[in-house]
Write a structure and sequence with these properties.
The complex is a heterodimer of chains A (597) and B (584).
Chain A (H helix, E strand, L loop, with lengths): L12 H11 L1 H33 L8 H21 L3 H21 L13 H42 L1 H47 L2 H6 L3 H54 L4 H14 L1 H23 L32 H5 L5 E10 L6 E10 L3 E6 L5 H9 L6 E6 L2 E2 L3 H4 L5 E4 L10 H6 L9 H7 L3 H6 L17 H14 L4 E5 L7 H13 L4 E5 L3 H6 L2 E5 L28
Chain B lengths: L5 H10 L2 H16 L3 H15 L3 H50 L2 H6 L2 H43 L1 H22 L3 H23 L1 H6 L3 H53 L5 H43 L19 E8 L8 E8 L4 E5 L6 H8 L7 E6 L2 E2 L5 H6 L1 E5 L9 H6 L8 H10 L3 H5 L18 H15 L3 E5 L7 H15 L3 E5 L11 E6 L2 E7 H6 L4 H18 L1
Parallel strand pairs in B: 3-8, 3-9, 6-7, 7-8
Antiparallel strand pairs in B: 1-2, 1-4, 4-5, 9-10
Classes of the chains: A alpha/beta (597), B alpha/beta (584).
């Protein structure tokens, strides 16, 4: 990835939320409509209760029968139940919005390069946690916002009804509610901070667990189980403290809720005493006020919650931004098809346009490539390299010299300080997007396999009719291993390929790369888990399968002996042709990559 | 040590915190009784107002109303907080138990269940349980108390109405009870689908570079769509099941409210009760609504919690194949290794090891060679007792491993592979494995120096506090290997197993380690599994494994000198390569 442009403009959270809401506008509007209807019905119920009590006490006109009123009340309640039942469609909206957000995030993470690619993530456990929690946080704001709008509709109707009865008593009900809004705002900031602390403490626990479960063998073998448990206990205690403090504030706010209603009713009693004494204020009026007060209080409470969730949604978007292309939050809500019905997602175009137009490798030139590992500060400097079609180039060097860094920089998997890559005389503008199959394939030092069949791990979605899997397996010296497996190619490979031996994992990764028939094959130290015989066979087969060009990192004398060119990286990360390894003399003219000065 | 039921386990954990539980109970009881006073005061107000009592009396009633309301809320907050603290304490204990249990399970279990899924099971499900327990305790128990109080007061007021109300409450409770479990299966399935989705996402993120550089991104997205579609379907089913419960409960309360108005109006018209009492009845019937609804809501959460509970139970039901029933410890000093007719296979498949009989005297170094898949790593795992042999006996220090306590065994063995896991933690934590080894900073630096990591250490931004792993300071594979060696050095074990430990290193670095390895091997027994024949140069004996059986076993020098031995031919192949290099 090249250096990023200016920081993306900040998009307000509500804009993003509006775009997500538009994704399934029909269903969204339907749900909102149902909520509004529900609230109007609540208004009606309050009025009916008032009329019932006035009819009983004789304050109402005699033509309204108590029994008729009660019957009407019942039918309004039944209607309300139907509306509530209909509201279940909100799940469909939520799941689709949630799916869209996650799709956009994963899409950015899976893009090789180009404008749609997000930065690769430091910790997959934390990123996955973010996928789950931050998207939920963002959507919860919408959830509450829609609800609040419905209640606001009720509030307007209720206040109008109450003012028409008695203005002063209305103030008595509304005043505590206003006080609550103020209190909620004051607490809101504190809640945000405590929520963040709680979230961080949770992330620390989840991250630690992810590390531990990803390295069970190391933990068991090193007899570190007790130490791990102790550390986990300490982290859990920290989280318990942070979460309790967080929940305390939330509970205080909820308590405010009921107190406000009671205070409101109490004040109504106080202020209405003289009016009731006179007879201006009836029992029915009191019942209405008490009934509405109970529902009204939900508005400031949830209004406050909505504001808090708005803030949290903003925080969530910030946390998600690094996963997205150019850190742009707009990419989070971009509209894309989400295949949630039984209609399967269309298979990806097997040989995309780039294949038919792709220019087979004749010469690959690298000039002045410099890249630094972001935290360790070490890397490679001023690397020059020329690869011709069919050549076999080996990069070697001592520990930490930067061999892997060089490969990753070349492939665009990490940002570079400087350097150009030239493919057949044309400068490559975006290495990450360009250096992919069918031009180029990569086998990293520690390959990752996925929880699916061996065949799927080799194909990675390629059209099985277009790929010769058997040839790829043969090239990777895997055919004997696969023949021994009872399920053969259909064998499910476990999380991170644990069920396979280290050598088998490496060879599956080689097969996977070979399956794409790339022009350039980049291998980072693939023979570390292989025995001498298997390794020899592997190179035999790879080298006969020319005109593939090979760029390999290795320290094995055997491998180096077979190379056409050798580039040695010294510990400063520069290529030096004159340094020789003990007991090894390169072929005449093999060393390359020297830069003057 | 294996608990047979999560419920019993929780019960035990709660019993350990009796006094907190009791205090919480008191707060809860009082805060639940106070709301009953409200409607009584309202009745008094209405009746006094109709009778034409002086304003001062009415004002007094209003004032009392307000005071009691405030007192009640304070107690509710206190009760809720103490419930939260208690729930966290208890569930943290549970988390510890689950983690220990999960770590003890076989590697094959961990292979079948990705970390993302295990995190959900040992932590996510427990958190759901914790949230449920704390809100359940406050809301359900508090509601039950309020409910009972209301029924008692009304019964005392008028026994016919009281019975009617009690009848209604029973109908409502029975309905809720019947509906309660109707959505559990759907909730369990939903949680499973969600765990599957996040397991999938985490895997793809971990392999993002592999996917990007090999054109596998589209495939990952297709898998994502499939997983999401499953979550969607299951979430919809679960939501419908839950909503059904809610609406039916709502219907019951609507009926109750209407009935109370009808009964109240009839009795008032008959002159049996005052208007204030009509309102009291209506209020109390409405008051039944909130506690019953809260119980219903919490019971809906029960479905999610039970679903989580079921998954926790499934986890606890898993047993490792290796049971830690031994009582003995290994003898002090250098350890001997003995395999007696050992055979092993994964899942009753083709045997990976068959009829292995050999021994390594204390203090000797055994080199193990053979093609990939010949069973070398399995051998190492049997010695660590990561699995038990299907046939035969493995002995260390002359004792059958099945009789030795696992902790005592693994403390004495050092295992170094080429797969070095760098934890996302400080250098210190990575070296001592979160404090598994007690060593002060001076010792840590000393070991780093001994192994040639002194320059690397000096270049660290935060010295031993520097974070390693993804996002932290990077290490090349070779440096990581040196770190793995450092870990073992610190532990100072008597038996050392090196499994391809130096295969990722260039010859210069390997030479540096070899010197340090010499120091480590002195006086210790070691088993060195290697492809690199140069690594085997310090082995006293050589074992050649082929397809799970011993092809050759003898002293290294003898085998090397005998031209007909397999070992000699392997050496020759290696030398030929070196000669080819030298001549060119």
């Amino acid at each position: 990835m090249t250096a990023t442009a200016a920081a993306p403009a900040h998009v307000p959270t509500w804009r993003l939320a509006a775009r997500v809401a538009r994704y399934r506008l029909g269903l969204f509007t339907a749900t909102a409509g149902l909520l509004a209807a529900s609230n109007v019905l609540i208004l009606l119920i309050g009025l009916l209760l008032r009329w019932v009590f006035d009819a009983l006490s004789g304050a109402a006109p005699a033509d309204l029968g108590v029994w008729a009123l009660i019957a009407v009340l019942m039918s309004v309640e039944v209607t309300r139940m139907a509306v509530v039942w209909g509201g279940v469609v909100w799940t469909l909206v939520w799941e689709q919005m949630s799916g869209l957000l996650r799709l956009n995030l994963l899409h950015a993470q899976m893009q090789a390069g180009g404008p749609g690619a997000g930065a690769t993530q430091v910790s997959s456990g934390e990123a996955a946690s973010s996928f789950r929690d931050d998207t939920d946080d963002f959507l919860r704001f919408l959830d509450t916002a829609v609800w609040v709008l419905g209640r606001a509709l009720f509030a307007v109707g209720a206040v109008v009804s109450m003012i028409l009865i008695d203005l002063i008593v209305t103030v008595a009900v509304v005043l505590p509610l206003v006080a609550m809004v103020v209190a909620a705002k004051v607490m809101g900031g504190r809640i945000g901070a405590r929520r963040r602390a709680s979230r961080q403490a949770t992330a620390a626990v989840t991250e630690f667990l992810g590390e531990v479960f990803g390295a069970t063998l190391a933990v068991k073998a090193a007899h570190a189980t007790s130490a791990v448990l102790r550390r986990n206990t300490a982290l859990n205690q920290q989280r318990a403290r942070a979460a309790s403090r967080d929940q305390l504030l939330t509970q205080l706010l909820e308590a405010f809720n009921t107190t406000t209603v009671d205070l409101g009713v109490g004040l109504v009693l106080l202020l209405a005493s003289s009016a009731m004494h006179r007879g201006d204020f009836t029992v029915g009026d009191l019942v209405l006020f008490a009934s509405y007060a109970g529902t009204l209080v939900e508005l400031p409470y949830n209004g406050g919650r909505m504001l808090v969730r708005y803030r949290q949604a903003g925080v969530a978007v910030e946390r998600l931004a690094p996963l997205l292309p150019a850190g742009s939050s707009e990419a989070l809500v971009e509209s894309r098809p989400l295949y949630v019905t039984d209609r399967e997602a269309p298979a990806p175009a097997t040989t995309s346009a780039s294949a038919t137009l792709h220019d087979p490798l004749e010469v690959l030139e690298v000039r002045d490539l410099s890249a630094t590992h972001p935290t360790s500060g070490r890397g490679v400097r001023d690397i020059d390299l020329v690869l011709r079609r069919g050549s076999f180039t080996v990069i070697n060097g001592s520990v930490g010299a930067g061999k892997t860094t060089l490969l990753r920089a070349l492939l665009g998997l990490m940002p570079t300080v400087s350097g150009t890559v030239i493919w057949n005389g044309q400068t490559v503008p975006d290495r990450a997007a360009f250096m992919v199959p069918p031009r180029c394939a990569y086998v990293p030092q520690v390959p990752r396999l996925f929880s699916e069949s061996l065949e799927d791990n080799v194909l990675l979605g390629a059209d099985p009719r277009a790929v010769n899997v058997d040839a790829a397996l043969r090239a990777a010296v895997l055919e004997a291993d696969v023949a021994r497996m009872p399920d053969g190619l259909a064998t499910r490979v476990g999380a991170r390929g644990v069920r396979l031996s280290g050598g088998q994992v490496q060879r599956v990764a080689v097969a996977r790369a070979m399956a794409r028939r790339p022009d350039l094959l980049v291998l980072d130290d693939v023979s570390s888990a292989l025995d001498v015989v298997t390794e020899r066979t592997l190179w035999d087969r790879l080298l006969t399968d020319r005109p593939a060009t090979l760029l390999v990192v290795s320290n094995r004398p055997d491998t180096i002996a077979r190379a056409d060119r050798v580039i040695t990286l010294d510990s400063g990360g520069t290529a030096s042709p004159s340094r020789l390894l003990a007991g090894h003399r390169p072929k005449e003219g093999k060393c390359d990559g020297q830069k003057a000065g | 040590m294996y608990p047979d039921s999560p419920l019993r386990l929780l019960g035990e954990l709660l019993r350990g915190r009796r006094s907190r539980l009791a205090l919480f109970g008191v707060f809860l009881a009082v805060s639940s009784a106070l709301p009953l006073a409200g409607p009584l005061l309202l009745r008094a107000f209405i009746d006094h107002a109709i009778e034409g009592q002086p304003i001062a009396v009415l004002a007094l009633i209003a004032g009392t109303y307000i005071t009691l309301a405030l007192a009640r809320q304070a107690l509710v907050v206190v009760a809720a907080y103490s419930a939260t603290r208690l729930a966290w304490m208890v569930t943290n204990d549970l988390r510890g138990i689950l983690l220990r249990h999960a770590l003890e399970l076989d590697l094959s279990y961990h292979g079948a269940h990705p970390p993302g899924e295990l995190i959900e099971r040992t932590d996510g499900d427990v958190t759901a349980l914790s949230t449920f327990v704390s809100s359940f305790a406050v809301r359900v128990v508090g509601s039950a108390l309020t409910l009972t109080g209301a029924l008692v007061i009304v019964l005392l007021e008028d026994w016919r109405v009281g019975l009617g109300l009690a009848g209604f409450a029973t109908v409502a409770a029975v309905t809720i009870g019947r509906l309660r479990t109707s959505a559990v299966p759907q909730a369990t399935e939903q949680r499973a689908a969600v765990a599957g989705l996040f397991g999938e996402i985490e895997e793809r993120l971990a392999g993002a570079e592999d996917l990007r550089a090999n054109g596998g991104g589209a495939h990952a997205l297709r898998r994502f769509h499939q997983a999401t579609a499953l979550v969607y379907r299951r979430a919809w089913r679960a939501a419908r099941a839950t909503r059904r419960i809610y609406v039916v409960t709502m219907a019951v309360f609507v009926a109750g409210g209407v009935l109370s108005l009808v009964a109240g109006a009839a009795l008032y018209r008959a002159g049996a009760i005052s208007l204030g009492t009509v309102y009291l009845l209506f209020r109390y019937t409405s008051m039944l609504r909130e506690p019953l609804e809260q119980i219903s809501t919490e019971l809906q959460n029960v479905q999610g919690a039970v679903a989580g509970f079921v998954r926790i139970k499934q986890l606890l039901a898993e047993r490792p194949s290796v049971t830690d029933a031994g009582e003995r410890t290994l003898p002090a000093g250098a350890l001997s290794v003995e395999l007696d007719g050992v055979g092993f296979a994964y899942h009753d498949d083709v045997p990976v090891l068959d009829g292995i009989t050999m021994s390594v005297p204390a203090g000797r170094v055994l080199g193990v060679v053979g093609p990939t898949g010949s069973g070398k790593t399995t051998l190492a795992r049997l010695l660590l007792r990561l699995g038990d042999p299907i046939q035969g006996v493995v002995r260390i220090g002359g004792i059958d491993l099945r009789e030795v306590r696992l902790a005592a065994l693994r403390a004495r063995i050092g295992y170094v592979t080429q797969d070095v896991h760098l934890f996302r933690a400080s250098v210190r934590d990575n070296l001592t494995l979160f404090g598994a080894v007690e060593a002060d900073d001076a010792r840590l630096v000393e070991v780093l120096d001994t192994l040639g990591l002194d320059r690397w250490h000096r270049e660290l931004p935060d010295a031993l506090e520097t974070m390693l792993g993804p996002g932290g300071s990077g290490m090349s594979a070779g440096e990581a290997q040196l770190l793995a060696f450092a870990r073992v050095f610190l532990r100072d074990p008597e038996l050392l197993i090196l499994d391809e430990a130096t295969s990722r290193l260039d010859p210069l670095t390997e030479a540096r380690i070899e010197r340090a390895t010499d120091l480590l091997l002195a006086g210790r027994t070691a088993i060195v599994i290697a492809h690199r024949l140069t690594t085997l140069a310090r082995a006293d004996e050589i074992l050649v494994l082929e397809e799970g059986t011993i092809a050759e076993h003898g002293a290294r020098l003898e085998l090397a000198a005998d031209p007909s031995s397999r070992f000699a031919s392997l050496l020759a192949t290696n030398q030929k390569a070196a000669l080819t290099v030298a001549a060119s």
